Amino acid sequence: MADSKKSPPPRSNAFVLFLLSQVGAHASACFSDRIAPLGLKPYHAGILSVLGNNAGLTQQALADLLGMFPSRLVALLDEMGKLKLIERRESPSDRRTYALHLTKAGHDAWMKVGQLSVLLQDDLCAALNEKERAALADMLNRMVAEQKITPGVHPGFRRMGGACGDKDTPGGKG
Question: Would you place residue 8 in the very low, low, confident or very high pLDDT band (cuts 50, 70, 90)?
Fold first, then answer.
């Protein structure tokens, strides 16, 4: 049986990457567990967040922002419509397109997800003081910008719509 009190391996760049992956996977699992009692999945929360901050976005604009194929997004939006979280309204400027809006239930769910996210962040960052938390947020924001990750959009949406970096995938590198 391995002794869990042993010193961690040397801190190489690969080890830092592993630690980021470890914390990210743990955070993702915890987030999923915390929103499950609301009847939500992480992709619901992501779409609620985007629409909560961008009311009236068209389906095409949302697909572009998320890096998903529109046909894949339609299925998710249909599911969210059945859950009464979103509604499609005819666009006042183009009757051929639909504007997406949160319903009251969708807005309430978005607010609850936000509250749960703050509590989870506090739990995950409990070992850090305020100055360290601010430094971590700054470093992660710089990494997001340098990697050209769309701020506020989880890269997992791209995987739902195709392979990350595929030149034929919306948002791909080609």
Answer: low
Q: Is the dihedral of CA 7, 11, 14, 16 positive or negative?
A: positive
Span 56-81, pLDDT tens digits:
999 999 999 999 998 899 999 999 99
**Strands of 8-145, DSSP E:** 57-58, 86-90, 98-102
Q: Which of 3, 162, 146 is nearest to 70 (CA)?
A: 162
94-140: per-residue pLDDT in tens?
Answer: 888 889 999 999 999 999 999 999 999 999 999 999 999 999 999 99
Closest CA to 101 of 85, 87, 111: 87
Interatomic CA distance for residues 166 and 131, integer angstroms? 39
User: Beta partners for 87?
Assistant: 101
